[in-house]
Amino acid sequence: MPGRLANKVAIITGAASGIGFEASVLFAKEGAKVVCADLNEAGVQKTVEKITAAIGPNLAIGVKVDISKEDQVKHLVDTAVSQFGRLDIMFNNAGIMHPEDDNALNTEQRIWDLTMDINVKGVWYGCKYAILAMRKSGGGSIINTASFVAIMGAATPQLAYTASKGAVLAMTRELAMVHARENIRFNSLCPGPLRTPLLMDFLNTEEKKQRRLVHVPQGRFGEAIEQANAALFLASDESSYITGTDFRVDGGLASAYVTPEGEPTGPVPKNFAETI
Ligand code: NAD
């Protein structure tokens, strides 16, 4: 049975872990040829091995890339085209949330710059070279991972991360308009809090986890596969009339004013920064 991404070629960044890993396996299952890209070379090879073992050979390749380096992103896109002949889907998903990212007073410039270089410039470079390749394929779908913090004010200070994800939303919207007539669609994926290493390393006690869950109407962390399923929809032709959206996959978080129990979702104690 042909899959939902039959005959398509996809690049997925951040493919060694979390959302990127799940999306790599899912996209391959649905018939795409997948270029799994990540800074973590050993991790990305494991993703390729998983695809080979679970689905079959010659469906995926791994590429080591630092998305904050323009020449490396160009090389990534060139590799996809030379190996698989075209590019239809670019999932700019890799990102960092630095442990030293803090509020306006405490965030150091090097943390700000590093976060912007990866989370914003990395997405820009991914879009830039994907556009050039997709023009030759007659169009495509570009999905950029943002976050719920781009939409909602978070009282947990992580200023550079929040600003970077806001930039991803704004950039994605503009690109969607500029390239709409070229049949290149752009959408942002806005995950809620997920049970992936990125967030669980940060919310490293049960108390911190429960504190965060107060905000989520569905009362649980999201799973990476739930983001991958949404990315699959945005990548496939099923979403052919959808471009420029902030696609929220967040357990209802960004729609919440009170919890289902009627409690305010955001009770912020005075010592909030210490409690989370
Ligand atoms: P993760 O940490 O599990 O995976 C991120 C991957 O990106 C890692 O494999 C890492 O090696 C890779 N990476 C980091 N810097 C890179 C670089 N410079 N070049 C190439 N690869 C690099 O995280 P995840 O939870 O799967 O997050 C994926 C995306 O989702 C990120 O953009 C993140 O900001 C976003 N997001 C996550 C959550 C969450 O709760 N986990 C919530 C909202 C948004």
Question: How many individual domains?
Answer: 1
- Total helices: the number is 9
CATH superfamily: NAD(P)-binding Rossmann-like Domain
For the largest sheet, list the strands in their spatial order.
Answer: 3-2-1-4-5-6-7
Average residue-wise pLDDT: 93
Shape: globular
Distance from N terminus to C terminus (CA atoms, Å) equals: 47 Å
Oligomer: single chain
Approximately what portion of the residues adopt beta-strand conformation?
5-15%
Q: Which stretches are low in confidence, meaning pLDDT under 50 for 5 or more residues running?
A: 267-276
Query: How much helix, percentage-wise, in residues?
Result: 40-55%
Per CATH, which architecture?
A: 3-Layer(aba) Sandwich
Describe this structure in words.
The protein is of the alpha/beta class. It has one domain (9-253): 3-Layer(aba) Sandwich (Rossmann fold). The protein contains 9 helices and 7 strands, in the order E-H-E-H-E-H-E-H-E-H-E-H-H-H-E-H. It has a 7-stranded parallel sheet with strand order 3-2-1-4-5-6-7, sandwiched between helices. The longest helix has 29 residues, at 109-137. The structure holds nicotinamide-adenine-dinucleotide. Residues 13-14, 16-20, 38-40, 43, 65-68, 93-97, 118, 122, 145, 147, 191, 193-194, 196-199, 224 line the site of nicotinamide-adenine-dinucleotide. Keywords: Oxidoreductase. Belongs to the short-chain dehydrogenases/reductases (SDR) family. Pfam families: adh_short_C2 (PF13561). GO terms for molecular function: oxidoreductase activity. This is Short-chain dehydrogenase.
